Amino acid sequence: MLEGNRVSRISVRGFAVASATAVTAVGSVVGVASGSTAQTTDDAEAVANDTTLLADIPVGQQAQVQTASLTAQADAQAIAADATARKDAEETARKKAAEDAIAKQKQAEKAEQERKAKEEAETKAQAASSLGSTPAQSSYSIAEIQAMAKAVVASDQWTCFSNIVNHESSWNYKAVNPSSGAYGLFQALPGSKMSSAGSDWQTNPATQIKWGLNYMESRYGSPCEAWSFWQANNWY
């Protein structure tokens, strides 16, 4: 309804339907007087759908009706935009929360791995320090020698360490290369190098293991780095 210069939010189509209804009503009166059949309200709706009736609105009020329609459309678009923005914000927050949770889990897992690695390293270090004091026996089985080595070699380095010993001496701590004179589990050349780990290097595999592990770590960084070099050169 129009009131002075203000107009309620009415769509052009709604105004058109009202105008069409009024026009149809006048036509009905004329038709009755002349013997014609009156149109129904549905006919008015059809007319409003098929015909632009803005011209039927007084010229001074057309701009108000158009402004009201545009305002209603702008309001609807603003509401839709707000809803989209809220949905996007919620989705962003959900993704951020999920990413944070994954990051925290990875940090926790990394911390746990570091803790275990530190504990293992400390255990291996203690075992390595005790190798030098291992009482010598008259002989050692391969299983006994491997058990000594496993006590000091990190679990993730064991396969590499074992591969080197397998290729060098087949775990024979008294192995001698007839050509070069290389000696022991690691085929040290000369064998007397191992005296830095103990004077019983010729008869005690524990002393040889201590020397061999230190050699791999000091020269290559780790048994696995030493094994990589060995594979490329067939020596280390």
From TrEMBL:
Stored Gene3D superfamilies: 1.10.530.10
Domain of life: Bacteria
Any Pfam family matching the protein: SLT
Basic and acidic residues bias: start-end ranges: 90-123
UniProt cross-references to InterPro entries, sorted A to Z: Lysozyme-like_dom_sf, Transglycosylase_SLT_dom_1
Domain Transglycosylase SLT: start-end pairs: 157-224
Disordered: annotated span: 90-134
The protein, known as: Transglycosylase SLT domain-containing protein
